[in-house]
Amino acid sequence: MKVRLEPADEFMHPGPEPTFNESMYFNLYDPDARLGGFVRIGNRPNEGHAEMTVCLYLPDGRVGFMFRRADIDSNDRFDAGGATIDVVEPFRTDVEHAEGAGGGRIDVGYHGQVVLLEQPLDMAHPRRAFTENPYADARVQLTYEGISRPFGGEPEERHERPGEEFAKGHYEQLVRGTGTIAVGDSTWSVAGLGLRDHSWGPRTWQAPWYYRWLTMNFSDGTGLMLSRIARPDSRGTRSGFVWDGRELHLVGDVTLRTEWVGDDSHHSRIHATFSTVRLGTDGITPGIERTVTGDVLNLIPLRNRRDERVTRISEGLTRWELDRALGDDPTATVGHGLSEYLDQIVDGNPVGLDE
């Protein structure tokens, strides 16, 4: 399936569909500061609001969190609920740039309050979590630069069934982020690695049956994204990419096994086997096969309701370890990132427990 992706896609897109969503998301982890998190703005101009989320995993184990449905009347920028995302320089398509990296620079900011969660699992009951926990002023000022070529784009042909649309166009890129994060009286200078994505098109969080979205960065510059999207009546999709510091490799298959904890069944440990493929003039040939294990360091469960359906989106700060040494430094097998588990909730249980 051919996809189109141009630097102009860094900016806003038209969307006449009632559930049109255009969103950007940025995550980051600084292992020296032991601080990480993500910021997302999802514009829903035809519904008159944007979804704004900021989530900060603090060094002491607390999570600073805020979600707002902020009023908007257009899709001309990302500026909602105290958060801003500004494209300073779009990614580049010339492969000679930065040894094949995609480049680009984007400024991400947030100025507002966060609720401070001593027990992040409290967010399973958001009304109680927002009323029974303290608040603090927060300020995020980060500059992100691309360190890999972008992965994805907009397919030339429709690839989602009616009612299951989640993103007509979607690309992701490994990034380096620097700046400051302040919460209450504490301020941290941060410099870490992460992943960002940009998507546009019709979207509801109830469209997938469940999905697993795993992002990870390693100290030698290797980065991975693994994706598993399940459908109730088909195998769904398994995909992703591996960036080896110079070249982007496509993931052809992903197999997952999850260990769950607690009465609400939150993911705590992830085992993933993935294989890459090469696309050439003579067809598709196998690449490498590797396994990666993730231990969730901290987790906050988020919730979305629509049309009397409940969707849980669990965001886990995760320590990753590959099955091999990368280069001469064995510590390079260790990395960090996010594990995002989305499940529809049926009869009180997440539907994806068997995988």
Q: What labels would you give this structure?
A:
single chain, 355 residues, mainly beta, AttH-like fold, 8-stranded antiparallel β-barrel, 8-stranded antiparallel barrel, 1 helix, 2% helix, globular
Describe this structure in words.
- This protein is mainly beta.
- The chain has one helix spanning 126-132; strands at residues 3-4, 20-30, 35-44, 49-57, 63-71, 78-80, 83-89, 105-117, 135-146, 151-155, 169-183, 186-202, 210-218, 223-231, 234-243, 248-261, 266-280, 283-306, 309-322, 334-346, 349-350.
- The chain folds into 2 domains: 17-204, Beta Barrel (AttH-like fold); 206-355.
- The protein contains 1 helix and 21 strands.
- An 8-stranded antiparallel beta barrel has the order 2-3-4-5-8-9-11-12.
- Strand 11 (169-183) and strand 12 (186-202) form a beta hairpin.
- The two termini are 27 Å apart.
- The relative contact order is 0.15.
SSE arrangement:
Blueprint: E1 3-4, E2 20-30, E3 35-44, E4 49-57, E5 63-71, E6 78-80, E7 83-89, E8 105-117, H1 126-132, E9 135-146, E10 151-155, E11 169-183, E12 186-202, E13 210-218, E14 223-231, E15 234-243, E16 248-261, E17 266-280, E18 283-306, E19 309-322, E20 334-346, E21 349-350
Antiparallel strand pairs: 1-10, 2-3, 2-12, 3-4, 4-5, 5-8, 6-7, 7-8, 8-9, 9-11, 10-11, 11-12, 13-14, 13-20, 14-15, 15-16, 16-17, 17-18, 18-19, 19-20, 20-21
Q: Percent of residues in beta strands?
A: over 45%
Number of strands: 21
Give the helix/strand class: mainly beta
Mean pLDDT: 92
Figure out the total of helices: 1
User: What sort of overall outline do the alpha carbons produce when their principal axes are compared?
Assistant: globular
Distance between the termini: 27 Å
Number of domains: 2
Percent of residues in helices? under 10%
Output the strand order for the largest sheet: 2-3-4-5-8-9-11-12
Order of helices and strands: EEEEEEEEHEEEEEEEEEEEEE
User: In angstroms, what is the radius of gyration?
Assistant: 19 Å
